[in-house]
């Protein structure tokens, strides 16, 4: 009877070990499946996030170029005004030089006429 009991316990333990081993293998497979699923979710999230970032960057670039164009138009107007002012300054400077020469000749003429009595 003792040997029958040992055989029964041995078969029972062997069955339990196989059951535990099978369950452990199933758990490992389930974990691996979950990890694969997690990786797919993360890959999908990353791709969607990158798409959104690209989209936002394109919108920001579009806005930036619009602002550049608006500023460029304003700068063009200001540069044109500056050009006109500088042209006017150049003309006035020439007129002043001409007036200075005329006054110099007049002063020289007056000085000569005062010396000739």
From TrEMBL:
Cellular component, GO, one term: central element
Gene Ontology annotations of biological process type: synaptonemal complex assembly
InterPro entries found in the cross-reference section: Syce2 (IPR034609)
Protein name per Swiss-Prot or TrEMBL: Synaptonemal complex central element protein 2
Organism of provenance: Amphiprion percula (Orange clownfish)
């Amino acid at each position: 009877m003792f040997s029958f009991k040992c055989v029964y316990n041995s078969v029972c333990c062997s069955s339990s070990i196989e059951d535990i081993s099978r369950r452990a293998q199933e758990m490992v497979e389930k974990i691996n499946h979950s990890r694969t699923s997690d990786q797919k979710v993360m890959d999908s999230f990353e791709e969607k996030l990158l798409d959104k970032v690209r989209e936002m960057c394109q919108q920001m670039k579009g806005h930036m170029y619009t602002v550049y164009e608006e500023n460029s138009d304003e700068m063009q107007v200001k540069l044109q005004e500056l050009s006109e002012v500088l042209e006017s300054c150049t003309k006035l400077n020439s007129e002043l030089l001409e007036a200075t020469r005329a006054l110099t000749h007049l002063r020289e003429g007056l000085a000569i006429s005062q010396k000739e009595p």
